């Protein structure tokens, strides 16, 4: 078990799982099968809602781990629809400035960091357990964006800007910044519902992604036992 993860007097880790919408919360709860160590919260869509909801939840109890969980878009060649992605780092990919020479991150601007590290040890253990359970999982940067990518050009630009980018979603950075501020380790677990690229909402495979999220949540429960 990672040294940073707190245990209470009964040696039980309390885990906060932040989702965006009710369907994601319900999928996670099905996988957890009533395990009382986990609190699963609907934090809303987008970074601001996620950060505010996570900070509020972390103020109500002593958690040893915060997990951002939900569906996401997968980058071509990195994560197929129905597979899982574990963030190797959480990256606010549109937090910065546009310049004539291209995008300039807040890191380059000198205003903090658009990248939050995850609990690497726990991420590795969870990835191994997911693979052992027969669930396909990739590890790579998970991008947080305010706007869902809708063109091949933007997908290619993001993939070039963040080498190895595996998935994009809309909340991870908000959850991660709130957790970091509270000294709580963070993970991001995503199941892939669609490919990052030209918008085609009819091609989103949400039921398959929610099934994968449910299965992954059951594995997470076992890994933290
Ligand atoms: O319509 C439904 O039944 C339904 C069920 C569960 C979730 C949804 C959502 O639309 C959730 C929005 C949520 O999904 C993330 N997401 C998924 N794909 C992408 C993407 O390609 N780019 C960015 N974000 C994506 C995102 O985190 C949203 O919060 C609908």
Kindly describe this structure.
- Keywords: Glycosidase, Hydrolase, Menaquinone biosynthesis.
- It is a single chain.
- The chain has 225 residues and is an alpha/beta fold.
- The chain has helices at 22-32, 47-58, 106-109, 120-132, 152-161, 172-181, 206-223, and strands at 15-19, 38-42, 65-74, 84-92, 96-99, 102-105, 115-117, 137-144, 167-169, 186-195.
- It has a single domain, classed as Nucleoside phosphorylase domain (Rossmann fold).
- Helix content is 35%, strand content 27%.
- A 5-stranded mixed beta barrel has the order 3-9-8-4-10, surrounded by 4 helices. The protein has a two-stranded antiparallel sheet with strand order 5-6.
- Strand 1, helix 1 (22-32) and strand 2 form a beta-alpha-beta unit.
- The longest helix has 18 residues, at 206-223.
- It starts with 14 loop residues before the first strand and ends with a helix.
- The mean pLDDT is 96.
- Bound molecules: ligand LNDFFVEH.
- Ligand LNDFFVEH is lined by residues 20-21, 23-24, 45, 70-73, 145, 148-149, 168-171, 193-194, 196, 206.
């Amino acid at each position: 078990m990672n040294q940073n993860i707190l245990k209470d007097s009964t040696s039980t880790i309390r885990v906060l799982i932040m989702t965006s919408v009710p369907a994601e919360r319900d999928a996670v709860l099905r996988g957890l099968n009533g395990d009382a160590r986990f609190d699963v919260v609907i934090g809303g869509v987008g970074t601001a809602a996620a950060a505010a909801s996570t900070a509020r939840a972390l103020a109500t109890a002593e958690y040893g781990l915060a997990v951002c969980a939900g569906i996401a878009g997968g980058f071509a060649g990195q994560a197929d629809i129905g597979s899982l992605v574990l963030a190797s780092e959480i990256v606010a990919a549109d937090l910065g400035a546009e310049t004539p020479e291209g995008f300039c991150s807040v890191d380059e601007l000198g205003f903090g960091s658009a990248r939050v590290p995850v609990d690497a040890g726990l991420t590795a253990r969870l990835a191994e357990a997911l693979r052992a359970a027969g669930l396909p999982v990739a590890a790579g940067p998970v991008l947080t964006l305010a706007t869902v990518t809708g063109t091949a050009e933007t997908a290619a630009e993001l993939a070039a800007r963040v080498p190895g980018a595996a998935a994009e979603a809309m909340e991870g950075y908000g959850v991660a910044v709130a957790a970091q501020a509270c000294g709580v380790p963070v993970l991001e677990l995503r199941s892939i519902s669609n490919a990052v690229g030209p918008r085609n909402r009819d091609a989103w495979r949400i039921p398959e992604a929610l099934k994968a999220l449910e299965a992954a949540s059951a594995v997470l429960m076992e890994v933290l036992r």
